[in-house]
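Hi R.,

Here's the chain you asked about this morning:
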Amino acid sequence: MQLKIYKDHDTLSAQVVNEIITVVKNKPDAVLCLAAGDTPRLAYTLLAKMARDEKIDFTHCSFVGLDEWVSIPPQNEGSCHYFLQTCIFDPLQITPSQVHLFDALSKDLEKECEATNKLIVEKGGIDLMLVGVGMNGHIGFNEPGAPFNYDAHVIDLDDVTQSIGQKYFSEPTVVKKGITLGLNQFLQSRKAILMANGLKKASVIRKALEEEIVADMPASIIRMHANGWVMIDEEAASSLKNLRVIQKNAE
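And the predicted structure, written out as C-alpha cells:
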C-alpha cells in the first residue's frame, strides 16, 4: 500500500486524474471501475478537461460499475448510473458498448451479479478501481461485516449508508439494498485507489490505516492490496498518529 497526502481536495483530485490518465496511456483498452459520489466528482471534471486538451483516447476502454441502489432507476438523479453518465460518460463521449453497469431494476439480481462477474473475467480483470470510503468504512456497498472473499452481490444497506445517501436524492427516497462489486474484486484489481478528503473522513481513515484489518472496517482491506494506493488530503489525514509506521509498512 502507498499513502499519498496532498494539500487540499483540488490538488488531490488533480493527482488522481494523473493516475487514471497514466493507466489509460499505458493500456489503451484498460478496464476501469470508477466510483460515483461527491469525493471523485471534481476529479472527473478535471479528467474530462484533460482528455479534451491532451486528446487522450478513451474509445477502447471499458467501464464497469462499482455499485448501485437497488430499485432506483437510472434516470433518477440520485442513481450511480445517472452520476456516471453525466460526470464521465457524456463528457468523455463514451459509447454504451463500452459500459457495463448494474441493472438495479432487474427481477433477478443474482443473475445480474453473475453476469457482471463473468464480464470482468472475460475482460481480463479490472485494471484500475477508484473508490471512496463511506462514513462507516464501506467501499462500494460493501458494508461493515461484508466478507473479503465476495464477488458481486446484493447487500442490505447499513443505517448510516441509508441516511447519508439521502443527500444524492432530490426528495426522501427509500434505499434498503445495494448491489455492488465485492471486496475480492477490489483485491484482484491491478491497481486500487482509495480516495478521501475533508475532516469528516479523518476518523474513518485513521481506523482503516491504523487499526486492525477487519470486516467491520471494509476500507482496511486496502492494506492487503498488492498495488493499493490511499490518496487523501491533509484534512482527511489529520487524525493519523503513526504516519512513519504506516509509510514504513507500505515500503
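The chain is about 35% helix and 15% strand.

Let me know if you need anything else.
M.
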